[in-house]
Amino acid sequence: MQSDLKYSRPLRALHWLVVLAVLIAVAAIEVLDFFPKGSAGRAALFMLHQTAGLSVLALMVLRLLARVATQAPPPVPGTPLIQLAARLTHGALYALMVGMPLLGLLALAWGGKPIQPFGLDLPLAVAQDKTLAHLAKEVHESGATLVYIAVGLHAAAALWHEFILKDRLLRRMI
């Protein structure tokens, strides 16, 4: 069956590394509010969020390059509507996994705030603009909801294929 064909090892590794980095970024930002503003714990969690977010961006760049350089397995047979839904969801995930870290970076840079992945200062040559900083921050924060929806749909579809359709689709990425 076509769905038994696997993605390349680099693509599978990058997929799961992105998942891990996203989980770390989300966990760090969700736990952050339990710490008082100005506390060392809050600062450490925000640095972890930045580090994980920039890791997502770097991993996605590598993933896009690997995706272009390698051939994906053929699509699993399905109705045209299912095929379209799969393509749209994957496209949304790729856009979000690149766009969210970029928006976070821009929100900080335009706001004149430090960008400190891995505890290092990362200067961005961007003029401060509080209006753009606020807009980028709002879109970045609102985009989190879209990430949850797209990831949820993606995971639900993979589980549906594996356990309901039993077409072994999930094994292509394991």
From TrEMBL:
Family as reported in the entry's similarity comment: Belongs to the cytochrome b561 family.
Membrane topology designation: Multi-pass membrane protein
Subcellular location, principal: membrane
Cytochrome b561 bacterial/Ni-hydrogenase domain mapped to chain residues: 7-174
The protein's required cofactors: heme b
Residue ranges of the TM segments: 44-65, 92-112, 145-165
Domain of life: Bacteria
Any Pfam family matching the protein: Ni_hydr_CYTB
Species per Swiss-Prot/TrEMBL record: Ralstonia pickettii
SUPFAM superfamilies, alphabetized: Transmembrane di-heme cytochromes
Gene that encodes it: yodB_1
Protein name: Cytochrome b561
Swiss-Prot/TrEMBL keywords: Cell membrane, Electron transport, Heme, Iron, Membrane, Metal-binding, Transmembrane, Transmembrane helix, Transport
Subcellular location: Cell membrane
Coiled-coil regions listed: none
